[in-house]
Protein 1
Amino acid sequence: MTGPVFRPLVLLLSGSRETITAVASQLDYELFNLLITTLEEEAIEAIRRGWSDVLIFEPLSPPHQSICLCSFLQEQGDTLPVILITSSQDLFPEFPRLRVYEVLHKPINRLELSARLKSVITLRQLEKQLADQPLAHREAARVLLVEDSSLQRKILAGYLAGEGIEVITAADGEEALRVAEHKRPDLILLDVILPGMNGFEVCRLLKENPALKDTPVVFITSRQGREERIRGLECGADDFLTKPVDKRELLIRTHSLIRRKQLMDTLVNQASRDPLTGLYNRRQLALDLQRELSRAKRYSTPLSLIMADVDFFKHYNDTNGHLAGDEILRQLAGLFVSNTRDVDTVYRYGGEEFIILLPQTDLAGAITVAEKLRQKVEKHSFPHGEKQPGGRLTISLGVAAYPDHARDAEGLILAADRALYRAKQSGKNRYATAIPPG
C-alpha cells in the first residue's frame, strides 16, 4: 500500500467571483488542494496556523485595504510564497514591502495557473531544503536574452542591467546555442519568432545539452499565442512572458527563476562534492570524463588522466589516527588543485586515491604533471611525515592517455589504475605510464 499523496494547499484570497470561479475550475486537483476566502482576516489566520503552502492574492479594492495582510506577510519573513493576480488592463499593483514570487494574469487560464504554481512550489521546497546551506556563488547573475529586434534587446537588457544582472545577447538561434554553451547563463529569455531556427528548436537543443538542460528557459510570446505557450512548455520551457513585456513582471520572474537555479546548482554541487576534501567526487568524474571523451573524439584532441595514491596510508592512519589521516587528504587536495591548470579537474576517487583529469593534454604533458605533483608532495612538510617509511609522505601515480591507452571512460581509468599498481610494485614514490593495448 502507498501512503497519502501530499498536495500543497493553495490559499486564494480574492473578492472577485470571476477570479474565484476561474481558479476553482481550472486548478489541477491531482496536484493541489484549494482553500478560498474573501476576507483578509481569514487569510491571515490560515497563514498563521500554517495551513497554506502558497498564497494567490488578488489585491482588494481600493488597494490600501490590503495593507494589513502585506504587513503581516512581511513580519513572517517570506515564509509563504505569494502569487499576485493582476489584470492586463490595470496598472501593475504596487506592494514594495511584499516579496512577490510570481504574477498571474487575468483572464486566468489552466496553463498559466499550473505553470505559476509549480514554479513557486518548487522554489519554496528548495529554499526550505537549503535554508542553512551557503549558495553556489557567482559574482552576478547572468541572463542570455535571445531577441532579433535590436530595439527590444536594448529595452529588456536595460531593465535587467538596472538590477545588477549581467546580460548577454543573441540575435538568432544558432548564436544563442553558441553563447549558451560558452557563457553558461543562469536564465535564458527566448523569443519564439527568430530568423532561421525558431525558439522551439533552440529550446529543444538546449534541453538536449547535458550542460544546459537545467538552465531555466522563458519564452517571450505574443499575448494571443496560447498555442505557442503550450508548445513551448512541451519542449521544455519553464515559463513564458507575453509581449509587450511588463518591466516588473520580467524582474519578478527573472529573480524567482535565477533564485531557483542557484538553489538547484547548490544541490547539484553538494551531490557532486566530496565532503572531506571539497573535491569533486567519483559521481562527477563519471559525468565529466564522458563529456571530455566525447569532445576529444569530436575534435581529435588528446585527453589524459592521472590516478594518484598515498603511499603507506594505512601505516599513517595506524600511527597517527584517522583524524590526522583526514588532514593529510585535505592538504593533498589543496596541493593537487594549486599545481594544476584551471581547465584540469581533481577528484577524490575513493579512500586515499585521487584522479586528475587533463583535457587537451597528451601523454608527454601528463607525465610532466605527474612528476611535478610527485615532487611537490615529496617536498611538502606534512604533519608526522617523518614517521612514514623513508621519513616523508609520498604518492605513487599512474598515467593514461586517450587515444594511446583506451578509447572509453572505463578503459582509461583501468589503464591508469594498472599503471599505478606497477608504480607501487616498483618501489612507490614514482609514476608509471599505462601500456598500450595489444
Protein 2
Amino acid sequence: MQNAEALKRYVGKEHRSEVEALVKNCENSKLTNLTFKNPTVALILSIFVGMIGIDRLYQGGVKMFACKLAMVILTFGTWWVADIYFSRHTVEEANYEKLLAAIA
C-alpha cells in the first residue's frame, strides 16, 4: 500500500489530493505496515446487516455497535437508514486520520 493511487480508495474524495501530496513527501517505510478498512465493505455491511450494527463492529467500535443497536431499537429502525451514509464516511475519515498519524 505504498502508492497514492492505492491509498485514494480508502479515503474520502475531499482528502484525495492531500493524500497524494502527503505520500509524495513521505518515506515508504512509514506506509508499509498500515492497514485500512475498506469503505465499500463498510457500506455493504451497513446496507445488509446494519440493522443489527455489524457494520460498526467491522469498524472496530464495540461501544458504537451497542449504541447503534440501541438507537435502531428505540427509533424502530429509522436510525439504520440514516446511518448507511455515515458508516462509509466514518471509515474514510478513520483511514485518513490513520494515514496522517503514520506520516506525522
